[in-house]
């Protein structure tokens, strides 16, 4: 199979890779680039465990082809923290015990970041609506929503 | 899993090494083995490592659902006393025998002290996928049946449904259906807490709105666990265990060790190791890990304490009886001389070598546990949509080792139960093939479908565990099905006896189309 040369900015770093036309962005991230934080939960766009930001928009990496990433700016869960400093969302997930098995967590954090970047004052209903593309079987969502609310309050405080 | 793979491959167990990964949620479906022996055989044939991944559709179709059931219940009361129950339980096993009907029958009447009962249980083989364990296997369906009938009975007798449950509650000494008396249990305390909750004391008003309550029970598991506690020369500790962590048990086990040793939690590094590196551990299932592996952690911690006493006694030239261990300090009872945990650890080379403690045990003294749930719903008669307005789950958790993780287990169980009650269903065609095997068509709850889930942790310590631990993970999925059905009855006057209470079923029932 002929492989295509792809260049993309991934987590702030210029990266290039060879990718088969059939490969999804998720496969490329996990298997070619070693970024295994994004998870495969369904591989058909229904669970959100592979959520990444592509040019600032949340996408399911399982439903984007690797070749489509050419020239794009991609942020995965690995690019959310600043070095050792966790993003307020990550810190809030820890403090609110907003995860159990942890498989859905990267998708939730990436997706929630996209919301708070845009709407730092999102209320509970808006957060629940925004995150309804991310499935979690363990938590019942309660602590996840609280963690996002907590991070939102912190981000607003930091901006004020 | 290691033993099952060895059995299938006809290999000595020692020749099979399982390296546990972060495997996602458990809920029972990962207790059997599926492709593991196939991968091993292919690897042997090819001489190369083999990885096999099941797609989500394959997981739906081939890893076993819970049993579909038909349950008939007849119950009688005199005044506010439950006097008799007769029930027949039919559980689908799939293509081979072995459903969870035993657990269904054993848990069904557990909340009650009822003198006369007759239970008939049938394991039904059908041309469908083999059923597997699914969170409190067998119990939610049985609770759906009995708790719906108890609701009707209480209404008929004009007794508040929670008061009815309190009056008839099982307690210590009540005989279980197998004739054995219950040890200390906490159902009555749960009902009491539900009666006194802000939720139950607040009125529910408005058309098509209603409130329901239900109780549920799960045995919880004991079984075998092994752990090793290794003290390092700087006083930090490695906790080596074999129970795969699917929801926070590294934390709940390290916390129990910190308590036993009287040292900071941060000084303990828990890790789940491969099967060559630790004694046998039974499955992470049955809500047993914090309880049973926790008991092993306690025993191993006590072994470390005894060793620390021996080392200090040696250094001081005292008999061991004159030395005591408390709060991370070893002290001479004679003259108050003391060593901290770190000081003893640092001297291990001079006092007999590395300090370790280990325990391998069968955990006895399992504490069964109860939950009592309250739910308010609103039913849209035009669309059939049921909105959960408010949900409170009360549960006897024994001792909450890590309270927010305990709440998380309860909230997760409740929402899984809400999904079961309202939407989740395996749909088969006439030939027995599953036709909705994706997350698009198998409709589990999203964040938008549920409200915050309030929890009330009731702590009736389990006398069978050094810290009073009872399992907490499975109990919360037992009551929701009936609690929601009872709430929908309260809201609409229609008694649903079939699950899920999906929009289609609700519209049909309310319009007399069913």
From TrEMBL, chain A:
Chain segments annotated as coiled-coil in the UniProt record: none
Transmembrane domains' residue ranges: none
SUPFAM superfamilies, sorted: 2Fe-2S ferredoxin-like, CO dehydrogenase ISP C-domain like
Keywords: 2Fe-2S, Iron, Iron-sulfur, Metal-binding, Oxidoreductase
Span of domain 2Fe-2S ferredoxin-type: 4-80
Keyword Iron: yes
Gene3D superfamilies per record: 3.10.20.30, [2Fe-2S]-binding domain
PROSITE patterns the record matches: 2FE2S_FER_1 (PS00197), 2FE2S_FER_2 (PS51085)
Protein name (record): (2Fe-2S)-binding protein
Organism: Tepidiforma flava
Lineage: Bacteria, Bacillati, Chloroflexota, Tepidiformia, Tepidiformales
From TrEMBL, chain B:
Domain of life per record: Bacteria
Domain Aldehyde oxidase/xanthine dehydrogenase second molybdopterin binding: 209-451
SUPFAM superfamilies: Molybdenum cofactor-binding domain
Annotated Aldehyde oxidase/xanthine dehydrogenase first molybdopterin binding domain residues: 1-168
PANTHER family assigned to the protein according to its UniProt record, in alphabetical order: ALDEHYDE DEHYDROGENASE
Name of the molecule in the record: Molybdopterin-dependent oxidoreductase
Biological classification of the source: Bacteria, Bacillati, Chloroflexota, Tepidiformia, Tepidiformales
């Amino acid at each position: 199979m002929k492989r295509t040369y792809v260049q993309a900015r991934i987590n702030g770093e210029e990266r290039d890779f060879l990718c088969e036309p059939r490969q999804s962005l998720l496969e490329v991230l996990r298997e070619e680039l070693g970024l295994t934080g994004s998870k495969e939960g369904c591989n058909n766009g229904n669970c959100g465990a592979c959520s990444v930001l592509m040019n600032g928009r949340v996408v399911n990496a399982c439903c984007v082809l690797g070749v489509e990433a050419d020239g794009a700016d991609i942020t995965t869960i690995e690019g959310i923290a600043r070095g050792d400093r966790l993003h307020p969302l990550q810190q809030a997930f820890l403090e609110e015990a907003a995860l159990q098995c942890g498989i859905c967590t990267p998708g939730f954090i990436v997706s929630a970041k996209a919301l708070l970047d845009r709407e730092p004052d999102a209320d509970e209903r808006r957060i629940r609506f925004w995150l309804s593309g991310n499935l979690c079987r363990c938590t019942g969502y309660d602590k996840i929503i609280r963690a996002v609310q907590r991070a939102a309050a912190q981000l607003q405080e930091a901006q004020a | 899993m290691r033993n099952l793979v060895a059995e299938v491959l006809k290999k000595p167990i020692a020749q099979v090494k399982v390296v546990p990964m972060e495997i996602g949620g458990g809920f029972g479906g990962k207790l059997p083995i599926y492709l593991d022996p196939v991968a091993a055989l292919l690897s042997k044939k090819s001489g190369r490592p083999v990885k096999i991944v099941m797609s989500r559709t394959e997981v739906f179709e081939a890893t076993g659902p819970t049993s579909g059931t038909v349950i008939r219940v007849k119950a009688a009361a005199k005044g506010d006393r439950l006097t008799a129950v007769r029930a027949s339980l039919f559980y689908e096993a799939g293509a081979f025998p072995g459903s969870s009907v035993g657990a269904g029958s054993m848990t069904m009447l557990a909340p009650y002290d009822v003198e006369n009962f007759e239970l008939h249980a049938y394991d039904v083989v059908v041309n469908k996928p083999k059923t597997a364990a699914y969170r409190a296997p067998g119990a939610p369906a049985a609770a759906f049946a009995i708790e719906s009938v108890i609701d009707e009975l209480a209404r008929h007798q004009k007794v508040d449904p929670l008061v009815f449950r309190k009056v008839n509650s099982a307690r210590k000494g009540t005989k279980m259906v197998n004739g054995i008396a219950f040890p200390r249990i906490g159902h009555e305390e749960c009902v009491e807490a539900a009666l006194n909750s802000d939720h139950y004391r607040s009125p529910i008003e408005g058309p098509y709105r209603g409130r329901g309550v239900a109780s549920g029970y799960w045995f919880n598991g004991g079984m075998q666990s092994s752990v090793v506690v290794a003290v390092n020369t700087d006083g930090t500790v490695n906790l080596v265990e074999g129970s795969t962590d699917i929801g926070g048990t590294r934390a709940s086990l390290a916390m129990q060790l910190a308590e036993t040793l009287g040292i900071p939690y941060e000084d303990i590094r828990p890790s789940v190791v491969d099967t060559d590196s630790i004694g046998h551990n039974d499955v992470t299932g049955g809500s047993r890990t914090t309880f049973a592996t926790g008991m092993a952690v306690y025993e191993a911690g006590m072994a470390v304490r005894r060793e620390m006493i021996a080392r200090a006694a040696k250094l001081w030239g005292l008999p061991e009886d004159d030395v005591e261990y408390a709060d991370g300090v070893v002290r001479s009872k004679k003259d108050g001389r003391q060593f901290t945990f770190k000081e003893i650890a640092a001297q291990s080379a001079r006092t007999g070598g590395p300090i370790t403690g280990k325990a391998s045990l069968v955990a006895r003294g399992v504490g069964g546990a109860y939950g009592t749930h309250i739910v308010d719903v609103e039913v849209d008669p035009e669309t059939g949509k049921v909105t959960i307005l408010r949900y409170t789950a009360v549960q006897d958790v024994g001792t909450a080792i890590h309270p927010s993780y305990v709440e998380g287990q309860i909230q997760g169980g409740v929402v899984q139960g809400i999904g079961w009650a309202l939407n989740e269903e395996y749909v088969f065609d006439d030939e027995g093939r599953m036709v909705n095997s994706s997350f698009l068509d198998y409709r589990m709850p999203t964040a938008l479908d549920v409200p915050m889930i309030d929890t009330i942790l009731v702590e009736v310590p389990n006398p069978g565990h050094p810290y009073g631990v009872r399992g907490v993970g499975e109990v919360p999925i037992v009551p929701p099905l009936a609690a929601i059905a009872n709430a929908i009855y309260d809201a609409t006057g229609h008694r649903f006896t079939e699950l899920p209470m999906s929009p289609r079923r609700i519209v049909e029932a309310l319009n007399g189309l069913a």
